[in-house]
Design goal:
By secondary structure, the protein is mainly alpha-helical. The chain has helices spanning about 5-30, 45-55, 60-75, 80-100, 110-120, 125-135, 150-160, 165-175, 175-190, 200-205, 210-220, 225-235, 240-250, 255-270, 275-285, 290-305, 310-320, 325-335, 340-355, 360-370, 375-390, 395-405, 410-420, 425-455, 460-495, 500-510, 515-525.
């Protein structure tokens, strides 16, 4: 190797350690931190979140529903997901509570709340609220579903009777109307499962300007305040639950026209409510608009397929419409479901079979109904009628007398008149026919008052005309029925030798054109 090459090699050997050292130092030297910029929420997402919050603060069903739709959309956006999780969860809980307060069975919102808590351990503090909401019984009218008493007892023991949890809930309730509303709701709803009543009146005074407590104070059980409800509806046209409660108040006052108007308004904003539709179905059945009643009962069943009261209402409408086979199918379904409304179901089956002249099946069902409704005068009067038509006069007498024992009705009184006429107990027959005319007169007064209310109502002229015609026809039928009672009473008194009473009854019968000739002949015999 020449001198030049040897020199180059020696230089390389001296450079390599220095380079390696530099590499080692470079690798071991601390690196400058790399700044990671978190994703920034776009302005439109921030606006959406603010919109949802404003909707939540409306404090009403529609507001909660719209807020949840927005939060559901935002929960899929990483830029705002963490920011909206708590308000989203709080809205889900409050919406689920409001649904229970309005008698809705939909559990999708409380299920979403469960999922949010499950997927976000940092929100575990909300778990008791979700659990209580899930177990809380909905405020329904009638038999919509069975209540899990065992499950309810366990939740109450685990949460409301847990001193630490209860103290934590109470502390939060004193600081924020949201928690105060839930606290009052839970301790009211579960009051029957607690060892003693919780004093709750102080919370309603803590937040006098809270929309939640304005609603709470307006809807205290059976003490609804119409002025507070009207104020809520006036301040926010989307506060549809106010109309729901106003409808209930109108029903209690037997103002069917006002109740119908309020429930139809409530239905505009809460179409998912089987409570609204069953109320409307019941109103139309009471006004004898059976087609409309049937329509709303079917709407109710579509929302709550096992709502027994709706199924019974549907069967009654079908019965009055003469659709007997369809009604029998619905009633048989109710009987197969068991437990509840069995007496009523068998009564209507007996009523239908009696209309179909099938008194064997009618009697089987009325006997079943008697065992389940042992103090119902309608049940025993129908049982008496069926027995009478089967020539079982002793049994008919017993059934009619049992009906009278529990208040009686025109069917039972007329029935006893006919039974004693068959047995030639003329004075007894006359006395019961005479009593029957008094009962018919009372029915006439009731129908006449309803007719008066219809005439002065705000119903449409077309609808009013139909209802007036129906009531006027009912009054004609009742007048003829009363004349029948007068004539039969006159005959009974005449056969019993009581000519004075016989003449009085016969003259009253003669006032009706249908009985004038027969009554005049009887009057000649009496005189």
């Amino acid at each position: 190797m020449d001198l030049k090459a040897r020199y180059a090699a020696q230089r390389l050997c001296r450079i390599i350690p220095a380079v390696l050292g530099l590499i080692v130092l470079t690798c071991c030297a601390p690196k400058a931190a790399v700044k990671v910029t978190p994703p920034t929420a776009a302005p439109e997402l921030e606006d959406k979140a603010a919109e949802a919050e404003a909707l939540f603060k409306k404090g009403c069903y529609v507001g909660f529903k719209k807020a949840i739709e927005i939060y559901q959309e935002l929960s899929a956006r990483p830029a705002v997901k963490n920011k909206i999780l708590i308000p989203y969860l709080k809205t889900l809980i409050l919406m689920s509570v409001r649904q229970k307060e309005l008698g809705l069975l939909d559990n999708k919102y409380v299920q979403r709340a469960k999922d949010v808590v499950k997927n976000n351990p940092s929100l575990r503090a909300f778990a008791p609220y979700v659990e209580l909401t899930d177990t809380m019984a909905p405020k329904t009218k009638g038999i919509m579903r069975d209540i899990n008493v065992v499950g309810t007892v366990k939740v109450v023991a685990d949460v409301l009777k847990n001193v630490q949890l209860k103290d934590d809930m109470r502390l939060k309730a004193q600081a924020e109307d949201y928690y105060a509303y839930l606290y009052v709701t839970f301790f009211t709803s579960y009051a029957n499962y607690l060892d003693q009543r919780e004093e709750l009146s102080g919370f309603t005074k803590l937040f006098p300007d809270s929309i939640l407590f304005k609603y709470k104070n307006a809807t205290a059980d059976l003490r609804e305040d119409p002025k507070l409800l009207e104020a809520l509806a006036g301040a926010d046209p989307e506060f549809y639950e106010a109309y729901y409660h106003l409808g209930e108040l109108a029903l209690r006052a037997q103002n069917l026209v006002e109740a119908e108007k309020d429930f139809l308004k409530a239905m505009d904003g809460i179409p998912e409510s089987p409570q609204v539709t069953i109320y409307l179905g019941s109103i139309y059945m009471a006004t004898e608009e059976f087609e409309k009643g049937l329509d709303y009962y079917e709407k109710t069943i579509a929302l709550a397929p096992t709502y027994r009261d709706a199924l019974l209402g549907k069967s009654i409408c079908l019965s009055y419409m003469g659709k007997y086979q369809e009604a029998i199918e619905v009633l048989n379904k109710l009987v197969a479901m068991g437990f509840y409304l069995m007496g009523e179901s068998h009564y209507w089956l007996a009523w239908i079979y009696h209309e179909l002249k099938d008194n064997d099946n009618a009697q089987l069902n009325i006997e079943e109904s008697k065992g389940r409704l042992p103090t119902n005068n309608e049940v025993f009067s129908l049982a008496g009628t069926i027995a009478f038509e089967k020539n079982e006069f002793d049994k008919a007498e017993k059934e009619f007398l049992e009906s009278c024992k529990y208040g009686g009705n025109t069917e039972a009184l007329f029935g006893l008149g006919k039974v004693y006429a068959q047995k030639q107990k003329w004075l007894d027959s006359a006395l019961f026919f005479s009593q029957a005319t008094v009962a018919v007169g009372q029915s006439q007064s009731i129908v006449a008052e309803r007719l008066r209310q219809i005439k002065i109502s705000s119903l449409s002229e077309e609808r009013k005309a139909r209802m007036i015609a129906k009531k006027e026809q009912q009054l004609k039928v009742l007048e003829a029925t009363k004349a029948t009672g007068y004539y039969d009473a006159a005959a009974g008194y005449f056969n019993a030798g009581r000519r004075t009473e016989a003449l009085e009854m016969a003259e009253k019968a003669a006032a009706h054109p249908q009985f004038k000739d027969m009554a005049d002949q009887l009057i000649k015999k009496i005189k």
